[in-house]
Design goal:
With 227 residues, the protein is an alpha/beta fold. It has a domain of 71 residues. The chain contains 7 helices and 9 strands, in the order E-E-E-H-E-E-H-H-H-E-H-E-H-E-E-H. The strands form 2 sheets. The chain has a 6-stranded mixed beta sheet with strand order 5-6-7-3-8-9, with helices on both faces. Helix 2 crosses helix 3. The longest helix is centred in the last third of the chain and has 16 residues.
Length: 227
């Protein structure tokens, strides 16, 4: 479904500790994502997990290397608040966010009532997002991304959003998508989530792949890094 071939993403820095003034967020990463699998990405903060998803989604461009996506397939990054404008209502923000994640205008319009119902926002769905609490914004962002139907779902650490009741509903909804034929790449700091949800896993360390394969074996390698 998707492949990364020797992908590096760097930025320039004045710090002498970096290689000729360049910091490699990702350094020569090669990785394949197969149809119908749930691939877990784990690693310490700052190792490039979210950057990896941004490259897969086409939001970021690599400094070198290539990101391939199977022709005709769509990918969406499920991250909170994508495209939100505080002056617009929850409804209008959901519309914009769905379109930013690959939906047509007609498809996005069709999702709105389902988004309103699942997010539990009630009449606040018609109010400006600037009046929302952080929990309300999280519910709107999660639901909008969840209800967008794409071939490859890229999830960036979002299964802890909202209050306890909504978190339980969100986790159940995500599990249902994952148990189907959805292709998923899932970033998490939770070893339990990686073990329970993922069919394959990757551990990133210092911008490179440290381990790849069976989730429990990868988590063992991760444990040695964080020990």
């Amino acid at each position: 479904m998707l492949a990364m071939d020797n992908v590096t993403l760097s930025y320039h820095s004045q710090r002498k500790s970096f290689d000729h003034g360049s910091h490699h967020v990702l350094d020569g990463v090669s990785l394949k994502v197969y149809e119908g699998e749930t691939l877990g990405i784990i690693g310490r903060n700052g190792v490039g997990k979210s950057t990896l998803l941004g490259l897969m989604a086409g939001i970021l461009a690599p400094t070198s290397g290539t990101v391939y996506q199977r022709p005709g397939k769509t990918a969406s990054l499920l991250t909170l608040g994508l495209g939100f404008r505080p002056d617009l209502s929850g409804r209008n923000n959901a519309m914009l966010a769905a379109m930013l994640q690959g939906s047509t205008q007609k498809q996005a319009l069709g999702y709105l009532e389902e988004i309103k119902e699942f997010s539990d926002l009630g009449d606040s769905f018609e109010e400006p997002v600037k009046t929302y609490s952080s929990g309300m914004r999280a519910r709107l962002g999660f639901t909008t991304a969840l209800k967008t139907h794409v071939d490859i779902l890229l999830i960036d650490e979002v299964l802890s959003v909202g209050d306890a009741q909504f978190r339980e509903k969100a986790a159940a909804a995500m599990s249902s998508r994952i148990r189907g034929d959805q292709t998923v790449v899932f970033v998490s700091h939770s070893e339990n989530q990686i073990s329970k949800i993922c069919s394959r896993a990757v551990c990133l360390h210092k911008g490179r792949i440290l381990a790849e394969g069976d989730p429990d074996e990868v988590l063992s390698a991760y444990g040695e890094v964080v020990a």
